[in-house]
Amino acid sequence: MDILEEDVLKVFESFHPAVSGWFMNTFGEATEVQVQAWPEIRKKKNTLIAAPTGSGKTLAAFLASIDELIRQGITGGLPQKTQVVYVSPLKALSNDIEKNLQVPLQGIREELKNSDLPDVELKVSVRTGDTSVAERTGMIKNPPHILVTTPESLYLMLTSKSGREMLSNVNTLIVDEIHALVGSKRGSHLALSIERLEHVAQRKLVRIGLSATQKPIERVAAFLAGSGNECTIVDTGHRRKLELAIEVPGSPLTAVMAHEVWGEIYERLVGLINN
After folding, report:
1. pLDDT at 1
2. Measuring CA to CA, which residue among 96, 235, 102, 85 is closest to residue 175?
3. DSSP secondary structure string, 38-69?
4. Cα–Cα distance, 219 to 264 (Å, whole number)
5. Which runs of E-coded beta strand occur in the chain?
6. What is the mean pLDDT of the chain?
7. Could you please report the per-residue DSSP string of 92-127?
8. pLDDT higher than threshold 70 for residue 219
9. Is 223 helix (H, G, I), strand (E, B) or coil?
C-alpha cells in the first residue's frame, strides 16, 4: 500500500501541534503502519497491528493516547490517574518500553516549552514481579498516567482493592507481543483479566494489540477484542524491505587479505552505518 500525502496530512492535523511537531522533527515522516493505525485508534476502535520489527509499532500504539493526555494537561484537566495500561509478556520488554517512552515525552515537553504552552509531565511506571513494595505503594498513592506491566502483575492488581481503585480510570489497553499469549494458559488468564479490567473501569476499553508475527490474524483479533466485539486489523506484512548489494574493495582480493584491503572494508562499513 502506498502512503498518500493527503492521508499523512490528515493524520498529523489530528494531533496537537506539539506532538506532531516533535514527531516530524524526530522522524521526518510516518511509517505505513502508523498512518493506518492512528486514525482507527483515535476513533476508539479496537485495533490489531501486525507489522515487522522496526516499523514504528510502539508509537503507532502509544502516540494517540499520549496526544490525548497532553491535551488534557494543557487545559488543566489531567488528573493524576492511570489512563493507559501496557501489558507485555516479558519483564525485560516492559522496562525497555518505559525507557523508550521517555524520549517522546521529553521531546513533546520541549515543544510545549518552545511554544510557550503549559508544561505537561506524564508519569510512566513499571509494575512487575521485580517492583519493590515501596514502589508499589508509591504507585497507589501517586498513580502513573501510563502503567507498564505484565499479565501476572495486572492480575494481582485486580485482586486488591487499592489496585482496582488505581485502575478504575483506565481507557486504553495495549497488549504487546500478543502472539506469545494467544493459545496459551497465560493468554486465557490475560483474557479474563482484561474483562475484569473493563468491569473495574466501567467503560469499553480501546484495545490495541501489537506483534510482528500473527497467524491466523483473524483469531488473534478476536482474542484481543473479546467476545462479540469488533476489531480493526492493520496488517502491513511481516518482512522488512531489504536493500541487498554485493560490494568489493578497490584493492585486489587474495587468499591472504592485506591490511590495506581490511582498511578499505572497515571504512566502507563505517560509511554505510553513518548513512
Report:
1. 44
2. 85
3. HHHHHTT--EEEE--TTS-HHHHHHHHHHHHH
4. 51
5. 47-50, 84-87, 124-127, 146-149, 172-175, 206-211, 232-235
6. 90
7. HHHHHHHHHHHHHHHHHHHHHHHTT-------EEEE
8. yes
9. helix
